[in-house]
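Summarise what follows for lecture notes:
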Amino acid sequence: MKVLVINSGSSSLKYQLIETKTRELITKGNVEKIGGDSEYGFITKDGEKIKFSVSAKTHKDAISLVIENITDKAYGFIGSLDEISAIGHRVVHGGEKFSDSVLIGDEVIRSIEHYIELAPLHNPANLQGILACKELLPGKPQVAVFDTAFHSSIPAKSFLYAIPYEYYDKYRIRRYGFHGTSHRYVTLKTSEFLNIPLDKLNIITCHLGNGSSLCAVKEGKSVDTSMGFTPLEGVVMGTRCGVIDPAISFYIMEKDDISAQQMNNILNKKSGLLGLSGISNDLREIWQQADSGNERAKITRKVLVKSIRRYIGAYMVELGRVDAIVFTAGIGENDWDIREKCVAGLEEFGIKMDVDKNKLSRAELTDLSYKDSKVKILLVPTNEELMIALDTEAILSKN
């Protein structure tokens, strides 16, 4: 089955065309700066990267370009749209309603629209991608794969906040968690790699990128995660602050006489690595400045590591027995120094990293621990798009 996987962002659209039977990636690409001076980039069957300027004022325009590209005979991806069996969409927020992926119909579209208030930066763009595909590819089944779904198994003791219970009753304010598709994928891969049945597997998954979250997985299910009501909570991220004293927001708003919306923008887009370092939200640039002696860059990476270790420690207590600590996503897969610092000094807990192997490992499934380590340390590349494609196939087989 060929599945077109769509990830619609606020001003970008990423896609992959995947053959689920062989798990082959046929092609992938993205349209950037939708609504402005747009750019289209994609990979040919020979692995060549091509990029050029396009006109894409809307997500519909972007998807039209994708359709035109994947059916272009010059590239030979597919002969016609008839070869595409379905479209799988990444949808960030499914609230409490969706604990699994689902075939998209009018009711699901209304629900995604309803949850815009919980994910105002993501769900609107996800919905635009769905509606554009519905118009441009009429009759093609579409499946929504929710970032929040994997975390629907989190118990009330972990998802409730200690605020008046009426706000949960009225507004469903609770921990939802995100990156669920990634956490689920690496959980499945870890189960296969360690040859431990999923219902026996206890791991801590560390999805570390520009957006980051950790997840405590007990017996194959999410029981706690660092992101909360929104993706703002948790560890320090590229431009998001992570956990802070809530009173800080009120203090700054009063001192600088700014609105709630302005404060929200500061915490989401001007904080984290960018705000703390004053350099960039790109950790590679911060590394360069730190190595050149920049003190703010040095303390920024220390704060980042500290925030990750805090959750690793908490989840070790939560799980009791831990089979593995798993690193994934952009930073987790490629930054050996962050991985090493996150587990440094934990030998007394049976966590022993082979630092030499760690330095040489990048973006490939690898056991980074010594043989006598009681807790394995793994690098497991994530593949959210493949997970979405496989979920899409599974949903269609049921309907």
